[in-house]
Amino acid sequence: MSKQSERASYTDLAHQGLKNAPLQKGLRGIQQRYGQGALHIWDSFADPSLRKRVKAKRESTLAHLDIVLEELTKNIEQRGGNVFFAPTAQDAVNYVLDLASKKEVQRVVKGKSMTSAEIGMDEALEQAGIKVVETDLGEYIVQLNQDTASHIIAPCIHLDRKQIGRLFHEKLDIPYTDDPPTLTQEARKALRKELLSADMGITGCNIACAETGHISLVSNEGNIRMATTMPKIHVALMGMERVAATLDEHASLLQLLTRGAALQKLSTYVSFQGGPSEKGSPDGPEEFHLVIIDNGRSKILADPDFQEVLSCIRCGACLNICPVYGRIGGHAYNSPYSGPIGAVITPLLHGINNHADLCKGETLCGACKEVCPVENDLPRMLSVLRHKLAYGDPQWNVTPHNKSEHRFFSLWSRLVRTPKLYHILIRLSGVLQRPFLSRDNMVSKLPGKFHGWTTTRDLPPIAESSFRQKWLQNKIASKNVVRKGQKD
Amino acid sequence: MSQPKTVSLFIQCLVDSMFPEVGEAMVNLFDRLCIPITYPADQTCCGQPAFNSGYRKQAAEAAAHFLNVFADAEVIVCPSGSCVHMVRHHYPLLFEDDPAMLQRAQQTAAKTFELSEYLVDILGITDTGSTYAGTATYHDSCHLSRELGIKEQPRQLLRNISGLHFVEMNDSEKCCGFGGTFSVHYPEISTAMVDDKLDAILASGADTVTGCDISCLMNIKGRASRRGEKLQVLHIAQLLEPVHGGSHE
After folding, report:
1. Domain residue spans of chain B
2. Which ipTM was obtained for this model?
3. Nearest residue on chain B to A11, judged by CA atoms?
4. What is the average pLDDT across A323-345?
5. In the CATH scheme, what is the homologous superfamily, with its name and number, of domain A49-295?
């Protein structure tokens, strides 16, 4: 990740997000409509077991991924397409750069690809002197703003129409307007020129299908259709897990993807690409290149604790329901992958210690698991990530994250196993809290690390007598108490 | 009906030290229902804070202590969904490599229940005969509703409280932002979340919010107090308790 070296912390970026009014408004809207909407779809789905069946198929495909990818490759090559397997991000970038250089590519149009952001494709092309233009409206706005996407599906959710109006006025040299249809028309005009003059189109891949040897791309703007057919060369970047073994699995995944992403039975466009245009056909590119990217995915695949996350189809539904994402927005995650899925996948791809805050910065509420079309248990994986941070894990190059926290829990463990001492300490805390009690018998200021709680909240005090004390002193009246040794 | 089982009270650590009245309410409730109870006094904490922070070794040590303390229990009832989730779902995970302990964990998990679940699903009681004067709304705590699937039981109990007007809030199942140590490590995010929750509660028109987890309620109460909101925050046990029901003003 090229942009990560100078990154600000999760906490700082989260605070910026909390204070960003247009972002807050955008997040509220998207969560109310899409998050709740997706849950409603699953609740009333005509085929209630589809998610479970698809998950089982995903797991079986992942277990045979080598064979499935081989079949995909064979079928695409038979149709005259090129397939390159890139072990690392750099390998993928180099492949595309070499190709661009060989073909003297000067202008590239992109069709929204998170994988390209993951590997730093755009920056590399620009450094090579190639003009890169995003054609997805949201991504185009983000690019004009020299910004990064803050949502997997809705990249510019952090900007409102007034900001976009000012941006277009400044960058596209048009009179200011904040009328969305007018702004969209202006973007369309500008993008059409780019699409007609580009030498290469670069897209991602929503789901590939090994059986038929194609990749599919969903969109609602039609930009993908143009970006994959107008330029002479189409390059598709694909995470190596984004493949269905059969057309049947592919169809099911597509159903779940468009519903999870945008509550649609089908998106406006679904493009299937699997090679160059056939001889004599006016449509399609002269060359088709599929770059299958590992970049750390093999390692995830090899770990039974995390393998499940590769079932993800990047629909973004978990972002639309997560109460943490819903408040801080996507930039805090320091990754093209934000929200709950980002909190799991980013540490796995780019270092667990590097992204410790992503592992710890959630409440494990489980909403993401409930809404996920493939029922990924993200809270479970976050818990495993925390486990690795607690003690370190050489397999994942994790070092213990917080030694003082470790010492605290070791001491805590001894205490909870020594009930008398544990309860004495609770009583002692009750005495020590006295100077901190306010008039209404709440604790309104705590020292040290617990200060975080009382900055914005009061804390009910430790009771004068605990339940245990009252019980042992027979102060709890009950007719039906069975005391120890009394049981018949 | 055969002799009711003796309930071993599993008093969540926060209830024990900060909200003993919730434990007392449970005692009164069981008393009214003529259910024998016992309280293993060596109990401390189920280990959830350590588990959620990743310290599984320490969590397993706390879990082993819990299994010893409750070894003889006929049935274990706790006024907290997240503690029951810990025992039911995470204890077996902690001992997956130790068959003897795993068996003990599974046996204990099978006889551990959350309060509203025990009343409704096991005892078949939906009306505890209590009264409350007020309009109450219910917060679905995350582990209770999503991991234990307990959504209707508390609502049934609340609807049968005489004098209590029950209203639903928007997004009742949305997390309140507590998340254990999350609330201390990320206080600003946590506060933004509890503000959303508090706004939803107040918008419902309720004067009282209740739930089955004191940790969420503590978070809501703490923020309501700082914001100066007039709101009663009571654990469901306190509303179901026959003696004190309706006299919390």
Report:
1. 7-121, 126-240
2. 0.96
3. B186
4. 97
5. NagB/RpiA/CoA transferase-like (3.40.50.10420)
